[in-house]
Design brief:
Helix content is 38%, strand content 13%. By secondary structure, it is of the alpha/beta class. Helix 12 packs across helix 13 (424-442). The longest helix has 21 residues, at 318-338. The protein is globular. The structure holds pyridoxal-5'-phosphate. Pyridoxal-5'-phosphate is lined by residues 53, 111-113, 116, 139, 141, 184, 188, 213, 215-216, 246, 258.
Amino acid sequence: MEAVKKLDAGFSELQAYESVAPGIERLAEVLEATAERLKDNYPYFHPLYAGQMLKPPHPVARLAYALAMWINPNNHALDGGRATSAMEKEAVVEIGGMFGWRNFLGHLCGGGTMANLEALWVAGQLHPGKKILASEQAHYTHGRITGVLQLPFETVPCDARGRMDAHTLAKRLERGDVGTVVATMGTTATGSVDPLPEVLALGEKHRFRVHADAAYGGYFALAANLEPDAARAFARIGEVDSIVIDPHKHGLQPYGCGCVLFRDPGAGRLYKHDSPYTYFSSAELHLGEISLECSRPGAAAAALWATQKLLPLKKGGEFARGLERGRNAALALFEKLLADARFMTALAPELDIVVFAPKAASVSEASALSRKIFEAAAKRDLHLAVAELPVRFWAANLEAMKLDRETLTCLRSVLMKPEHFDWVDRIWDLLTASAREVFGARN
Ligand SMILES: Cc1ncc(COP(=O)(O)O)c(C=O)c1O
């Protein structure tokens, strides 16, 4: 309330006016009805929600967003959102700084899909007619986006750790028709990190563009507890041509906050053909000049700016520690699964996602049991997710299992809230109780 008063005071010189909000007398009644409807949700904020990639926004982000809504600025242009455009530039400079970038081009957008669309739109213009490659575990929207952009697209198989197979990529590149390779820095299903050093080395040789889809994994550039391969990949992320990172995933923001960055600020000329492009460092840059979208919420910029003021994007800082705790939670759950003969695991978590499945006589039986455990856990208020993964990811642990399907339906848990670390034992108790119920019914 104090903040709202302060903001209002900034406009106190204006002539008094009567604000008209039709229906205001029924506000409380409708808000109550809204709350009633919103109860029909999974408890995404709670540590026992350990399923999909969902994380509650930080209180400062919610409040700064609501505060900015008092004005509802539009960051499509400086006169639509003067203060929030400046806040957006400052916040984006900090994000680029995480990857060692200083003079670059970047802005916020609706989310990871929009950000990848922009990055591939630029890539397609710089390498017309050439192929865009991404791993078979890359986010499904890359196929859609390249369809929309009418760019030729192909997937590259993954190794048993869910990472783009660098040998297959090297072979594929020999045809000489590839313009861009998308390296996923944390796949959606398993959190696998593509081998960026190898991709960059191939890029030197074959002269293609490298785009890092770090929508989910990007903030792990700050984490100190990655295993060596992932750490090596994140250490080189500043060498790619473009990066997508989603503040609305790991950056503690409400939905509607993605971010695209281009290492070469000259990419701006592709957005605006009929007027000179403006460098990111220019004080006069209208973000609408370097964004595919027109209207964009200034409130999202205010929320991100405030969050980064409170929790700077620094290695060893409080924000980084939160990411490290989520990853430690994933490692702790993985250790428990490894030690339990009822379950099998595929890859060790590279970030904070764990995938696992119950052992059974056949892949189809294990798949059916996964779904049953998912349901039994939900009844205990433990919310997991299910994923469909190629059987070869599990090859080392399948033992005598009959391979009657090409994919295995498994359980998946994204442990992205710092609180998850303190809740691993409780999650394990509920998971094993659910498994006992399901296995008991089987016998
Ligand atoms: C790696 C990756 N890229 C892109 C996306 C799409 O992002 P959004 O849902 O914000 O559009 C996701 C979403 O989970 C993702 O994990």
